[in-house]
Amino acid sequence: MPLMQPPETVVEITRVLEAAGYEAWCVGGGVRDALLGIPNLDWDLTTSAKPLQVRKLFRRTVPVGIEFGTIGVLDETNVMHEVTTFRSDVETDGRHAVVRFGESLEEDLARRDFTINAIAYSPSRDELRDPFGGQRDLGARTLRAVGVPKDRMREDRLRALRAIRFASRFGFTVDAATWQAILVSAPYLGKLSPERVQQEIVKTMNQVALPSVAFGMWRDSGAFAELVPMLAGITDVELLALDHLRLPLLDRRPQRLQLRLAGLFSAARPGTVLAMLKALRFSNADSAWIGGLVERWHDMGRGMKNELMQPEPPADSVLRAWAGRAGRTRLAPLLRIADAHWWAERERGRPAPSRERVESVYRRAIRIAYRDPVEVSDLAVNGDDLLRIGITGKRLGETLRALLQWVLEDPSRNTPESLSNRARELS
Fold first, then answer.
1. What is the pLDDT averaged over residues 378-396?
2. What is the mean pLDDT of residues 65-88?
3. Beta pairing class for 127-129 and 120-122
4. Among 360, 363, 290, 287, CA closest to 330
């Protein structure tokens, strides 16, 4: 029985390279995850063949990083596998490296970030090469840099954030020397582009079951202070709330990711979130949705909590008012953000609405939001109707908003006759 079983398409690539007289090894996350018993279809390879030699051997290739020795080889199902020539770093500015092509697998593994990612596997010989003790660290559940940790962090500042993500994802402890190197590296994280920082935040949200652990290390290492200063003071309770936004891991539906991101950025001061998201190069659509949800949490969260902690559950009119202020489509995610915060507060012994009260009100609120009139567009009259009775200019918008508040108190008022009469009274 082989030590591990990479996809047959990957095995075939190694066969072609070896048949041409080159070394070929599986490396990186595919090997690591196989040793951990985690399925992973993303298998990369390293080889003694130079990039142009790789391109000659395969019919369909993509020069994804030819200057760094990486060629993408497309298999029969159009899946691309990265094949990279043995290499070593010549110099680096902390993010971009100048490389030279190496002569040996060991030289290539020595330039990798962490021991658990510096293990190579040969399918043809069913052989593992592990010169830095990666298997030992997998067994000990330890995240350790290859060689001298400070050197690895200086070569590529992104490794500090990757270390945190890997340790949190697998539930590993960061080796003391590696953690110290992360602390030393933190003041230099400004070398990273906003896009790279955003990608690490998103990958952490998608891959880590308990984001509080990862972002707690961002805070404690100084990464937040350097990269996202508005989150530098995030509290333990605010971090813990992220763990209660329970989402399936690797779920790529945008609204799931947006909800977790809103949970994280809800720790920032009101009025700062939209600019922060744009600085991190989130799309305009994501920035608007997440920023809008966070602002509603800051605006409404305390009042919602007070209502839910009363002896009696809130009246329907209160829930309609919530839906009106939040917006019909934002009420459910707002309540989920609130629930996560209150759950974290209860775990820390702080007063918060009970789980049973929150669940009951959540069901009622969503039903009401989609049943009753809660937005100006739901009113039985519109701007044209008000114009016909002589309401114009600034008063028109003010009157529509006043009519909505009147209807939120009692939806039976939402008739053309009642609203027209009320509009005349208001004018």
1. 94
2. 90
3. antiparallel
4. 290
For residue 142, give the nearest of 180, 114, 161, 118 by alpha carbon: 114
Phi, psi (deg, nearest 5) at residue 269 = -65, 145
Q: What tokens appear for 315 in the block?
A: 């009246």
CA 425/CA 393 separation, integer angstroms: 17
pLDDT over 70 (residue 192) = yes
Provide the mean pLDDT of the chain: 93
Residue 292's identity, in one-letter code, is G
Q: For residue 79, how far is the Cα from the chain centroid?
A: 24
Least confident of 82-96, 136-150, 203-217, 338-352: 82-96
Strand 70-74 and strand 80-85: pairing? antiparallel
Does residue 1 carry a pLDDT above 50? no
The position carrying tokens 């805070």 is 219
Tokens at 110, concatenated: 């020595």
Identify the sign of the CA torsion 34, 196, 283, 240.
Answer: positive
| Cβ proximity of 321 and 284 under 8 Å | no
Q: Which long-range contacts (CB under 8 A, 24 or more apart) does 34-42 make?
A: 34/4, 34/5, 34/6, 34/121, 35/4, 35/119, 35/135, 35/138, 36/138, 36/170, 41/7, 41/79
What secondary structure letter does DSSP report for 94?
B
What per-residue confidence (pLDDT) applies to 331?
Answer: 95
Partner residues linked to 71 by β-bridges: 83
Return the number of other C-beta atoms located less than 10 Å from residue 267's C-beta. Answer: 23
Alpha-carbon distance 243 to 259, whole Å?
12
Count of CB atoms situated within 10 Å of the CB of 215: 26
pLDDT value at residue 296 = 97
Residue 153 makes CB contacts below 8 A (sequence gap 6+) with 145, 159, 160, 181, 182, 184, 185
100 pLDDT higher than 90: no
Checking DSSP bridges between strand 87-92 and strand 80-85, what pairing results, if any? unpaired
